[in-house]
Amino acid sequence: MNLAKKVSVTRLEIGMYVAQLDRPWLETPFLFQGFYIRDDDEISETGKHCEHVFVIAENVPEAPQAPTGSRPTKVTIEEVSEPEKKRFSFRSPENWLAAGFIGS
């Protein structure tokens, strides 16, 4: 059973799961109704809009983490050139035929 504890935003710590705010979610810029505190910026942003929050005290689902021993994927960016554009002119009857404006 999940029990939410009322916590002052000044006592929030990274890793806590915020389950409820002291005001309606729609009055805040938070996209989700419930989130893990991931960094100090989220703590300060929460403090701008709330005085206290409710955090899950037990049976908190674990925050998604990278598997142990995994390394970030290296991304290679290749420069791709645009295909050469062919010039097209309606002045040439061959192009009219190719474009289907006139029959063969």
Topology:
Layout: E1 4-8, E2 17-21, E3 35-36, H1 40-49, E4 52-56, H2 93-99
Antiparallel strand pairs: 1-4, 2-3, 2-4
Distance between the termini: 78 Å
> Which ranges are low-confidence, i.e. pLDDT below 50, for 5 or more consecutive residues?
59-63
Helix/strand structural class: alpha+beta
Main beta sheet, described?
4 strands, antiparallel
Described by the principal axes of the CA atoms, the overall outline is elongated
State the strand order across the main sheet: 1-4-2-3
| Rg result | 29 Å
Mean pLDDT: 75
Oligomeric status: single chain
By DSSP, the count of extended strands is: 4
Portion in strands: 15-25%
Fraction of helical residues: 10-25%
Which series of helices and strands comes N to C? EEEHEH
Keywords:
104 residues; alpha+beta; 4-stranded antiparallel sheet; 4 strands; elongated
Task: Give an account of the 3D structure.
Helix content is 16%, strand content 16%. The chain has helices spanning 40-49, 93-99, and strands at residues 4-8, 17-21, 35-36, 52-56. A 4-stranded antiparallel β-sheet has the order 1-4-2-3, with no helix packed on it. The N and C termini lie far apart (78 Å). Residues 59-63 have low confidence and may be disordered.
